[in-house]
Amino acid sequence: MEAATLLDYVVSSNASSLASGRTNNIGLIIPALARWFFSAAVEGAQHALMRHGYDVTLYDLSGEGAERDRVFDLFLQRQRIDGLVAISLELSASEVQRLLDLGKPVVAIGGPIEGIVTLAVDDAEISRLATQHLLSLGHTQIAHVGGADRFDTNFHIPTNRHVGYELALRNAGIEIRPDYTVTADFTIEGGYHSAKQLLGDPRRRPTAIFAACDEMAIGCILAARDLGLSVPRDVSIIGIDGHELSEFFGLTTIAQYPREQGARAVDLVVGQLRPGGELEPTANLPLAHDLIVRTSTAGPPVPD
Amino acid sequence: MEAATLLDYVVSSNASSLASGRTNNIGLIIPALARWFFSAAVEGAQHALMRHGYDVTLYDLSGEGAERDRVFDLFLQRQRIDGLVAISLELSASEVQRLLDLGKPVVAIGGPIEGIVTLAVDDAEISRLATQHLLSLGHTQIAHVGGADRFDTNFHIPTNRHVGYELALRNAGIEIRPDYTVTADFTIEGGYHSAKQLLGDPRRRPTAIFAACDEMAIGCILAARDLGLSVPRDVSIIGIDGHELSEFFGLTTIAQYPREQGARAVDLVVGQLRPGGELEPTANLPLAHDLIVRTSTAGPPVPD
DNA sequence: ATGAAAGCGCTAACAA
DNA sequence: TTGTTAGCGCTTTCAT
To answer: What is the pLDDT of residue A91?
Structure first.
């Protein structure tokens, strides 16, 4: 051992893997990278893996259908990884099966996904909470800026967040107005344009908006400003995520913690890899969230 | 081959690597991930690598000193990769040497770095151009929001961008005022606070600001708004990057293209890996940039 | 405890 | 062209 240290000897990972069957490498599959949530989750996962001595191989599914298949059929098959973390992916049944067929630990962030151990915030519940926050402040005209349907094919957040919104309204005995739900593409710009439509029409202006993510919520704040409306005096806005910009914009939000989520998923995978570290084949573990009240929400405007 | 296809046979990458010495895997070293430029560059590199059939292993250096050393001493030594792409890293001489000692193709984005093939925008030149844009509109009181020194340890952009700014002013025969250069941390929030100081003091308010990146420039725009100043009527603002939010904010900027840069770096590495694909040991290849004039810059305000 | 050797699944060089 | 085999650098089992 002394001599090895002296010579800066490092085991060849290939020879070691071939002989032992362990690769010291974990795969991360993500729907895209250049988005706050995903890159933060990857960052958290990467650090945790490094601490465990694992390398991390990235598989980005943002390509077209054929490229996506190639990940499952080629890249994931070459025995390069000991386990897998899937982040915010909406997987088809056949894709789930192919992951399970690898015979390696798989943990997903965001779910539940049938047959896979998942970590997930309860999207319906946090959306209900966000909406209830607005209700508790006295709002009754609450609009929702949700995700467009086509995003459901990647990760099924939008639907569940919409469900929680309607649930909260229904519980409060408030009529659900179809024209109070608009969709956008999860970006600041998308939220801006949606909020312009919502707030610009004096016949239907809501007093509060619940946006399905902070980036859209920030777009809503900017749209309100450009319409000469004051936040929160004229309109209250709440988001979800705890995005790095949310504090700067004074946005009330339900924070979740992608770095910690990534690290926790990694710990679960690595734990299963250790001798004796089996896990029940399927489970959906809840993830922490916090309501962070800032300056973008207040009671509804008092009528003149 | 038919039988292989039929059986969904995929070569074991470890066995193949051990026998051939090729791993079909490229390493990406980055200073951090959760920033627009880096995640976009990684995305571009990842897609290009996938097309070439390569896996990608991520090494994030955002950890502390010991973690950083571990990347060079352990992770990069285990013969897992055929080549390396380093993104926007400020490397010590010893780190450069350790990369070269791997005996594998290394291409860096951002440079120049002594001894390594680099792709780089000419930071001094694009900063000069940005400043000259403001000069050509008639501005003479031009401030600079630059990067704080401590960021130089990761990537040396700030210094070079400041150099270009001063060069343009000097060429125009304009006195360089020390109080017109302030620093921030490359974030929207940082730019906001710096611009507040710069624009809030009536005794020294500049008529234009050149920010060293778009995120800080966007912070400047928001600060101007909050001070009741109109952009560009009262103050012109220009950034660098072509950030995804720059269009939304009407920001004039010098765009660069991290996705393409990542893809190009990958092509260079993969090209060297192909039989007969040698490259001169060191070179600094220029990268494309474009001045994109939007609505955040105009002539200086006319005195009352 | 320490040492010897088989073999992990391929690639590449060589023989036929 | 097609077939054969040594050996890549380790891990693990088995014998000492």
So the answer is: 87
> A42 CB near a chain B CB, below 8 Å?
yes
**Token digits of residue A285:** 């573990």
**Residue B69: how many CB atoms within 10 A of its CB?**
13
pLDDT tens digits, A70-118: 999 889 988 899 999 999 988 889 999 999 999 999 999 987 888 899 9
Q: In the structure, how far is the CA atom of residue A18 from the C1' atom of nucleotide D7, in angstroms?
A: 14
SS (H, E, C) chain B: CHHHHHCCCCCCHHHHHHHHCCCCEEEEEECCCCCHHHHHHHHHHHHHHHHHCCEEEEEECCCCHHHHHHHHHCHHHCCCCCEEEEECCCCCHHHHHHHHHCCCCEEEECCCECCEEEEECCHHHHHHHHHHHHHHCCCCCEEEEEECHHHHHCCCHHHHHHHHHHHHHHHCCCCCCHHHEEEECCCHHHHHHHHHHHHHCCCCCCCEEEECCHHHHHHHHHHHHHCCCCCCCCCEEEEEECCCCCCCCCCEEEECCHHHHHHHHHHHHHHHHCCCCCCCCCCEEECCCEEECCCCCCCCCCCC
Q: CA A159, A163, A168 angle in degrees (round to 5)?
A: 155
Question: Which of A287, A261, A281, A289 lies closest to A30, judged by CA?
Answer: A261
Contact residues, chain A, for B63 at CB < 8 Å: 47, 50
Query: Which residues in chain A are contacts of B32 at CB distance < 8 A?
Result: 43
Residue A64: its pLDDT value, please?
A: 75
What is the C-alpha to C-alpha distance for residues B208 and A216, in angstroms, rounded to an integer? 30
Q: Per-residue confidence at B156, pLDDT binned at 50, 70, 90?
A: low
The kind and range of the H/E element at A293 are: none
Are A61 and A89 in contact by the 8 Å Cβ rule? The answer is: yes
B80, B101, B102: which to substitute to probe chain A, counting the most A Cβ within 10 Å? B80
DSSP A262-278: HHHHHHHHHHHHSTT--
Confidence of residue B280 (pLDDT cuts 50, 70, 90): low
If you ran DSSP here, which 8-state letter would residue A76 be given?
A: G
Token reading at A190: 């998308």
Residue B22 to residues A1, A10, A218: CA-CA distances in angstroms? 28, 18, 47
Q: Among residues A251, A248, A197, A249, which one has the least CA distance to residue A227?
A: A197
- Two structure tokens written together for A275: 């001798």
**HSE-up (13 A, CA, CB side) for residue B127:** 25
Closest among B130, B121, B115 to B88, alpha carbons compared: B121
Distance CA B132, CA B254 (A): 12
Portion of chain B with pLDDT greater than 90, in percent: 75
**B55, A75 in Cβ contact below 8 A?**
yes
pLDDT (average), residues B280-299: 91
Shortest CB distance from B80 goes to which of A40, A55, A248? A55
Give strand letter and number of the nucleotide nearest B18 (CA to C1').
D8
